[in-house]
Amino acid sequence: MSDTIATLDTATVWLVRGLPRRAVLGPVLLALGSAELGARLLTPHERPPAPVRVDLHEYFSAEEIDRGRRYARPQLALALARAAVHLGLIATAAGRAAGRPAGKSRTPLAEAARGALVAASLGVGTTVASLPLAAVSRRRAIAVGLVTQSWRGWATDLAKAATIEAALAGMAGAGVAYLTERYPEGWWLPAAGASVGLGTLLGALAPVLLDPIFNDFTPLPDDELRHQVLELAAAASVKVGEVYSVDASRRTTAANAYVTGLGPTKRVVLFDTLLDRYSRDEILVVVAHELAHVRHRDVMRGVLYGATVAGPAALATQRLSWALSPRRTGAAVLPVLALAAALVAAPTGLLGHRLSRAMERRADAYSLELTGRPDAFISFERAIALQNVADLDPPGWVTRLLATHPSTAQRIGAALAASNPRTRRTPAGS
C-alpha cells in the first residue's frame, strides 16, 4: 500500500510540474463540458409527474429497512474498495513505466504486439488483485440468500470473464500502442473514433456472442403471457426482436430485467426469478418499463452519449498522460494512459449516471401510463427491493452520484403520483 501511495504522490508532482497547467486543465474541462452537454441534450424532455414524498415505514417494516441498509452499504464500500485497488495497481504500473528509460525504437506493428501483452496483463492483474474483496462481497451475498451458485461455478465464470477481458484489453492495447507510435501527436482522434465504433459493434454482438457464454436464453413460450407482452409492444408501437427468459436462478435469487442489443440483436430479457415469483400484472409493468427503453431508443442514447464524450475524453487522456510521464508513445506508455483514462472517466461517468436516472424515470412513467397498474407497480417495487436486499433509504450522495436508477422510495412515489387523476397522462403509444 505504501508503494501505491508513493506512486500517487509522484504522479501528483508530475501533474503539477510537468506540462503547463493550461495544457492539461483545458482538455479536462472540455471533456467535462462535453459530458455535461451530452447529458443535457440526451436527457428526456418529457417530465413525468413529480414523485409523491413517501414514508418508507408505510411500505416496509423497520427490520426490512435495517436489513437492506446493513447489507447494501458494506457491499457498496467493498465495490468502491475494489475500484481503489484497481486504480492503485494501475498507478503503480504507471509509475514504474514512467521511471524506466526509453528503450530502442520499434516499428508500430511491433509496438502493437507488445501493447496487446501489456494491456492484457494489466487487465488480468487488476482482476486478480481485487479477488479477495470480491470473495468477501460474495460471502456476504451468500449469507443473505442471494447466491445460488457454487464457489467452483463462480471461479469458472471469473475465468471466462477474465479471458474475455484480456482479449478485449489486448485488442485495445494493440490499437492504442500502434496509434501512439504512428501518430504521436494526433493519435487521440482515431482512437476515439475506434472506441465508439468498436463499442457500438460490441453492443450489437454481445447478446449473440458473449452473453450465451454465461447464460442460457430461451424465448418466452407461446402462451398467454407472451401474447400479453406482444399486445403491450403493439400498444407502445415497439418492435422487439424477441423477449427472452434467462436462467439467472443458476447464480442468484435476485430478480431483474433489461434491454440489450442494437438493430437485429435488440431484445428484452427477463430473469427466470422474475417470471417464477411475480404476478402477471407485476411482470407486465416490468415488461412495459423495458419496452419504454426500446421505444425511446435508450440504448442508442447511451451510445450517443459515449460518442459525444469520446473525442474530448481521449484528448484529455493524452494531455494528462503527458503530464504524468515523459513517455508518449508505444506499449510502455499504456499503464500511464490507463491511469489518465481512469481519472478522466470518473467524473464523466457520474454525469452519465444522471442521464441514466432520467431515462429510468421516463421508463417508469411510461410503464405506468401504458399498463394503468400503479398498484402492481408499487407491489413489485416493494417485493423486488426485499428480494434483492436493496438499500431502501440510501444516503443522498449515493443517489446523486452513483445511482443509475431512482431509489425505491422515488419509484413508489412516482406510482402514487401517476395514480392521481390530476397528474396522469394519456400513454403516448395508445
Describe the structure.
This protein is mainly alpha-helical. The protein has one domain (2-216, 288-418). Helices cover 70% and strands 4% of the residues. The protein has helices at 2-17, 21-42, 62-99, 108-129, 131-143, 151-182, 188-209, 211-214, 224-235, 272-277, 280-295, 298-324, 334-371, 374-387, 396-402, 408-418, and strands spanning 217-219, 243-246, 257-260, 267-271. It has a 4-stranded mixed sheet with strand order 1-2-4-3. Strand 3 (257-260) and strand 4 (267-271) form a beta hairpin. Helix 3 (62-99) runs antiparallel to helix 4 and helix 6 (151-182) runs antiparallel to helix 7. The longest helix is centred in the first third of the chain and has 38 residues, at 62-99. It is globular. Residues 1-18 and 423-430 have low confidence and may be disordered.
